[in-house]
Request: fold
Amino acid sequence: MQLKINNTVVATPSEFSVTVLDLDNGESTVRTADGTLNRDRIAVKRQIDITWPPLKWADTSTLLKAMSSVFFSVYYPDPVDGTYTTKTFYVGNRPVPVAIVKGSEIYWGGLKVTLIER
Amino acid sequence: MYSTSQKFKDYITSSNREFEVRAIIDGVVYGSDEVVEFTIDDMITGSDELTLGTVIPAKLSIKIKTTSSISTNAKIAPQIRLNGPDGYTEWIPMGEFCIDSRQYQNGVWTFNCVDKLITTEQPYVSNLTYPVAMSDVFEEILGILGIESDVVINSTFQMPYKDESISIRDMLSCIASAHGANVKLNREGKLIFVPLSPSSPVATITASNYIRAEQTNPQKVYTKLEVVHNAEGETLSRGTGSEDNTLKFENRFMFIEQNQFNYAFSVMNGFSYVPYSMSWTGRPDLDVGDTIKIVLLDGTETTSILAVNKISFKGGLLQQSSAPSKSEQQSEFRFQGTISKQLAQKLTKDAIYNGVSFGPTYGLKVERSDGKVRLLANATEGIRIQKSAGGDNWEDVIFLDAQGNGNFTGKVVSSQFEGGSIDIGDGQFTVDNEGNVISNSMTITGGSVVIIRDDNKVRVAISGSDGFKIQKGDGTGEVWEDVIYIDAEGNANFTGIITGGIIRTAASGARIEISNNQIKTYNFDEQLQGFATNNEGQQYGDVHVYDGDVVVFEIYNNFFGNGVSLRPANGAELSIGANEHNTRFFGNVADYIWHGTQAEAEAKTDWIDGQYADIEGSKTVIGDKIVFPLPENIDETEVDTPLKIANRLNEIGWLCNKLTARMNTLIQYMTEITEEMETDPNL
Reply:
């Protein structure tokens, strides 16, 4: 699987999950008097949860820098579209909890991000 | 109702809707990625009852995330469309609005806008000649506002007179109410009439469309029309029915143009609606004034009107709609017009209240119900507050004329006056605009008057307790020293020169007066008595002594270095010296012995005792024997007493002195003759 963030090819994740989200108007998406739910859907968006295995420090840095903008493009396989797609996302927290020292090399493990379509 | 495609009708009533929005601002399209949300408020009534002739602008509040510059008063036209299985619908215009105000926060502009009906709030300045066809008035107004309209005005209607005080809004209201309608702008910005007339529903709203719908009052059926046609709240009516069945409105021309009233009645007669309030998924193609059918949960079908409408778009669409009404009980209150209605609802039985009315001649009139006080305000005369003891005899108590002059018959209480001049009592007390005060009479009780020179070097202080003071200061305003001080007891103190016309020790009677260069002393009988100067011609320099207004003695200034004379006057005697007091003269004394011939001496009759005289011809010459006659009281035969002898010796001594003087005169004469002979050999 190929994954590009901000046009940068990044390391292959260990976990990759795509969620299709419906955004509804909270005020007008209501049940009418006959009990029917009426939805005013504003848009359909994607959410991608990604986890990477331990990565070399340089790779980790490259990956985090690719997500440093407020919004950035992500080239990924979209399960709905049935093809690789490029959409604009933003990212939430980017925890990198484990630092592993192997010889003279430092590895960062457990990097996990959630990308939400703009 | 705005005409739409079937696709739109299908989509809008679907339970799964997707909207797209855009706003066209001065020709620039702002799409769904920039329009955040908007709300449109629109209505044909601003109160809790339907009426005729309303001119209420629609309002738009829209949020747009943009960095573009949007001009002042820009025109904003929001549009929405739906997306569905068969693609997008057409764009539905939601009206045209002009920006009234704006706020900016976090990159998002909020524009508060109104439609062009807001511009009707201006005076209607007509160039037409009245009476005039109503259609001409309507066309003139459209021209003034720059608004188009397809409304056809009843060709038989006319405006009977020119109302100088009417606004365009009120004139449009009169025109619309004559047609049994209210005024709105449609989605293209054209002016339309929304009549209140029986009509079929254009849309049916069911429980699958609304979230909450409730009937708020029983059905209203209008079978009677009532118009308030003047400022006094007088009405005309057509039709029959209770208060609850009466549709009321205002139109100042309908008393004259009652055919318009008849027409309006024909339009609205039988109009009915069910008052309701509803929150629902909305139909953006519906307009206020549209008749709608609402199917309630229990299956009841009600027909009503979309009178008040609020559409909110925040990605989805939500609509609040209602048709308000008063209850039957509320309708029992008498409709008295906009202002009088509010006042009348505050009336308390048996209390004095203010009645408000407007008239073309008197303007605004506010009159107390007991008829004793009223206020008139108009632009021709000004503002009057008048009182009356009864009847129509009104008297101004306050009159502010159109030139800014104020006339008050009562007390004026103010914390501050600024500018201008004051004239109280027709010149009795005036203060001009430079601070000069003129007062016919002024009494200051318990206070003081202090006048201070600008440099704090001199001030005048008058006080009831301290009297009158002129003081000099050191310039600080803190230290003052009396230069003239007249205390409350009448004592005067001067540290400088006194210059004045008359100074006298009493106003009349015994006194001393100093005036000009004279000093005079008077007795109790207002007569000059005693010492007085005589400076007549301001130059004599004499001193007089008066006795009962008669000069008896004067010290006469002889002028030109000739000394002075002591002169008794007006037959008065002059006595020098006093008994048992010696009197001496110093220096040479002359002319104190009477001089004349023997004959003159004998003719003289005013001799006084002991007076000395020098008789011409009685002078002795050389060789004369001087015979010293004995005093008559001496008897030669008797031996004198030592005292008599002494007296005689004194007399001899005196004669010797006189002889010596004569000798001196003779010697001087001889000396002069000798000197003349030496200088004149002819002698």
Remarks:
- Chain A touches chain B through 18 residues (CB under 8 Å).
